[in-house]
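Assemble and predict.
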Amino acid sequence: GENVEQHPSTLSVQEGDSAVIKCTYSDSASNYFPWYKQELGKRPQLIIDIRSNVGEKKDQRIAVTLNKTAKHFSLHITETQPEDSAVYFCAASPNRDDKIIFGKGTRLHILP
Amino acid sequence: DAGVIQSPRHEVTEMGQEVTLRCKPISGHNSLFWYRQTMMRGLELLIYFNNNVPIDDSGMPEDRFSAKMPNASFSTLKIQPSEPRDSAVYFCASSSRTGPNEKLFFGSGTQLSVL
């Protein structure tokens, strides 16, 4: 089955700097890669997703890149702000059965 | 729409007791997922349903765990008997299958503490 590895587990960046979170997946059949943000005490919420037919997608300050050959994908947050502090989860989904498997999460701290 | 509704929000029980967690998915969604969240393991998929039918329960940790979806608007996750290592936040999520791999909408979770 699918296995998703996520790094780093914790990341601290200065406000205004960029943050990068990386994930790898094992199942070459996976074709959907969402990212979820979970604020303290809240539920995870989708912030951006990418499908395997594109290599990059951008939405304001966040972007995702996908390298299908290497089976890895990344989340980039530019001009970080205090409200970006949260836990971020990457995930992968094999098309054949639609289950969504999550990485273990990255706790992002934005330092003032 | 009120979103995915889970109950109870918090559950404190003693080891050996039966625990039942409840979920009402978003109306019109026909896929439902149960996840367990811990610091060590992150978000683990326990089981998911499509059109009320269990599709994959390979994530259910032991026979002590069972899940049902008797109709499109209700699902339960039961633990019997409960153990301290079951303490975690249990999330229910639903999605629409109008297209493949659609966005998950999570409930607010049930914080379970087994003493």
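The longest strand of chain A covers residues 30-38.
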